[in-house]
Amino acid sequence: GNWIEWHKDKQPGQYRNEGKLKAVGSYKNGVKHGDWYYFDWIYGHLSGKETYINGKKNGYFVKWSRIRPERIIQFEGYYIDGAKDGVWIEDGTKESFSYGKVKGQYSNGKKQGRWIYYSRYSGVKFQEGNYLDNCAVGTWIIWNETGSIRNKINQKADKGSFCANKISLYKKEKVAITDKKKEAISDKKLQVIDAQ
Q: Which of 157, 49, 161 is nearest to 112 (CA)?
């Protein structure tokens, strides 16, 4: 049936959000089903919408930033059977401190095809390359803030035991690709960008 959730203060008196509307949706057979709407605990405005079918996200998903009173889309895309699918746009996510907007394609929950990252500060294209099953592959191009090419990196993903999930940028044409088990070390490192 229909369900309403209310915000509760994490520490009494600190946020003063006690009793503010948090979410509205429905359950069917004990799991989320249908459209769910989420509300910001600071400003009280609509902060997200997602659709469930038998407990799995399906269909259009949108989440607006909670940082500002104006509604800025932070995440937008589609789910199919609980996995991200199709074009997704992300803006200033907590996983991407070094860039602003990100646009790319998912297939069955994995990054696929061309992905473009834009600078958080100037909005110009910052990085562009391809993914294959969440692995950065092929030539990645990195631009500086003026829009000129700073570096080109060729990514080769070993589909066996190691998949490129981080792209490191260096002043020279050196590259280190790391995962949770491996760490490549190089001098003159400028920045590490998590490509997951």
A: 157
Alpha carbons within 13 angstroms on the beta-carbon side of residue 174 total: 13
- Say how far apart CA 52 and CA 25 lie, in whole Å: 10
Handedness of CA 143, 130, 77, 21 (dihedral sign): negative
Cβ atoms 186, 173 nearer than 8 A: no
Cα 127 to the chain's mean position, in Å?
15
Angle in degrees, CA 146, 170, 113, rounded to 5: 75
CA distance 194 to 136: 10
Q: What angle do CA 115, 119, 124 make, to 5 degrees?
A: 85
| Contact status, residue 56 vs residue 78, Cβ threshold 8 Å | no
**Contact of 33 with 24, CB cutoff 8 Å:** no
Distance in angstroms (rounded) separating the CA atoms of residues 104 and 130:
9
In this predicted model, what pLDDT tens digit does every residue of 19-69 receive, in sequence order?
788 899 999 999 999 999 998 877 788 889 999 999 999 999 999 876 655
Q: Are 179 and 162 in contact (CB under 8 A)?
A: yes
